[in-house]
Amino acid sequence: MDLTSLARGLSAPAGFVEASQVTPPPGTIRLLSGLPAPEALPVAAIGRASAALWQDPDAAVAALQYSSPHGFTALRDWIAEREGVDPHRIVITNGGMHGLTLAVLTVVERGATVAVDDPAFPGFPWALEVSTSAVLPVPVAADGFDVDHLAGRIAAGARIAAAYTVPDFHNPAQATLSAPKRQALVELAERHGFYVLADNPYRELRFAGQDQGVAVLNASDRVIHVNTFTKTLGPGLRVGWLVLPEHLVDPVIGLRNRLDVHTSSVTQAIVERVVTDDYDKMVGHAVALYRERAEVLVSALHEHLPGRFEIQAPEGGLFLWPRLTDDGIDPAALFQRAVAAGVIYQPGEYFGPSWARHLRFAYGDRTVQELTEAVRRLAVAFA
Amino acid sequence: MDLTSLARGLSAPAGFVEASQVTPPPGTIRLLSGLPAPEALPVAAIGRASAALWQDPDAAVAALQYSSPHGFTALRDWIAEREGVDPHRIVITNGGMHGLTLAVLTVVERGATVAVDDPAFPGFPWALEVSTSAVLPVPVAADGFDVDHLAGRIAAGARIAAAYTVPDFHNPAQATLSAPKRQALVELAERHGFYVLADNPYRELRFAGQDQGVAVLNASDRVIHVNTFTKTLGPGLRVGWLVLPEHLVDPVIGLRNRLDVHTSSVTQAIVERVVTDDYDKMVGHAVALYRERAEVLVSALHEHLPGRFEIQAPEGGLFLWPRLTDDGIDPAALFQRAVAAGVIYQPGEYFGPSWARHLRFAYGDRTVQELTEAVRRLAVAFA
């Protein structure tokens, strides 16, 4: 009744989004969500930062008053140094999804088409509904987003406002966009005047292979580089950032002034102290944990379900994206048997219609014992 | 270049918005912004709540993980009890402006007309640009928003999607909407099918006069009641709430899922502990401070500038809205002389073209010494 067309146009939670919100029966091992491990969250460091904040009268009052829509200066400076850009190009957001939506509302006209990873992190097409639902799927290969495919579609007449991809440790496909393809994607965007929305929440979580670099992304005035502390310090903080081309800073700030004024001064004051404390050590601890978990999961699958999956060992991030090798297995029936056996994951179909033979296992927030037991239960489902 | 029509349609900061961001010369006494007094912010209580949070391992991890888009349960329960509504109707927001924008995006179609207080809190028409810039000004009298005027305009053919007013301690006009006019406004909205956006950040700050009640607002499925902890616990937290009609809860949550997922779990965990600690005492302390400041300001104006202003003593809130009595005085020249004398305020013209003979003095965050000195400097500007 009397809703805006915007509000009426938003789809109800379904597939991945619905599954992420489901509470499975007690005892079920959840391989559902790309959450950081509770043991990897720097609770002690955050507690220290927080205590220092509230014991400093000036800082405490500043944390309770309004602050800049751009974000805290020292925090932006720290991020800018890591990103290798001028601090003015950094805008602090309320986490990754907020950054993506600000980007979409700023550069994706209503009804425009956006090229999107296929398979895709389903949260992005969902968020994209604030502007449009016209998606041009672009396959993700072992070395990431298929830039040639997109170039071909554009040559054939497709017009896009933006291209969305997760460049590092793709969700769900594990892939990292290769350095040559980063360059090619940026050149394509500059030639055809669309924006690249590079969504990079897993970037810090590398435990194998070679970093493919972000300098080429941050050097282009056609790239909006979206990141967040969600996977390193915790999603509950709701603190992330955008690396914006200079000419988009004012438009994003103008929008953000209306939407939510600024990110909490309290959480920014805490994060600012935590990152300038011992951030790399904290992240290193988390990454070691994720490496071990990925290895345990892969080993257990090879041991208990030999030959059942085509598996690529993760180089980082929080996901394994194995493919069923036996075409005789019905993935939907397997999923039902897995849930009955006490393990739950995201079926591949939730990430795009052509991915039904994949399974997404999120291993980051499960212990090695849980992961081993999860594979045993999966073996029961196969039996 | 390649901005959305939404981004292109946002106006640059001007008037009030620009003035709020200006840094005047050192030593200038700022009567500019409706900020809470630093001394009234419950830093100690927030420090205690925060320490308790980070020392509780389960609560700490929960505060760093995702939480519900609706908000923390105990916080919603506490708010719901004070508002006298079912907790399901409460959605926690990132402060008042975020609540207003969520409301606008949900019920104000692009290009629709919205009835707005005249004079208006300039932040609202500014935020309204995310949907429309079509405003129907409705005069604010001593007893608030002129409901009869709006009824007349509607009878004459005006069609509105919503009506915006600040019911308690109006910004800038000080007025509180009388109980009969609250009832009349709700009836008008129900009869004609528009929404009332009741923006109520000053509600807790009453130090004189009679509360006019919010039950009639919260009982209607045509009212979105917007509030925030900004004026009581501090704007830097960015924690507020909406009291929504039942049928708008899901649409607002759907939108909010895309815009920013949820309000920081960290700030919610802190606020939840603070409000269930000794909230009424904290607010009582702040209100006593504001009462004293309002009285000092009014007395000093009577003493040092007798007869120069038509003054209504505030019953609460953070603003005085005096009117120049001498039509021979040029308000713009007075403002320049005041700034030169070392005091700055918001000229009435920023709140609407017919209010140039008013001045808005924000007294909440100034000490009694500063307020007295500000009036002495103002007397210099008059001399």
Automatic annotation (TrEMBL), chains A, B:
Keywords, comma-separated and alphabetical: Aminotransferase, Pyridoxal phosphate, Transferase
The answer to whether UniProt assigns keyword Signal to this entry is no
Keyword Translocase on entry? no
* Transmembrane spans: none
Instruction: Name one molecular function that GO assigns to this entry.
Output: valine-pyruvate transaminase activity
Q: Which InterPro entries match?
A: Aminotransferase_I/II_large, Class-I_PLP-dep_aminotransf, PyrdxlP-dep_Trfase, PyrdxlP-dep_Trfase_major, PyrdxlP-dep_Trfase_small
Aminotransferase class I/classII large domain ranges (all copies): 62-378
Cofactor requirements of the protein? pyridoxal 5'-phosphate
Stored PANTHER family: AMINOTRANSFERASE, VALINE--PYRUVATE AMINOTRANSFERASE
According to UniProt, the name of this protein is 2-aminoadipate aminotransferase
Species name for this entry? Answer: Paractinoplanes tereljensis
Which taxonomic lineage does the organism of this UniProt entry have? Bacteria, Bacillati, Actinomycetota, Actinomycetes, Micromonosporales
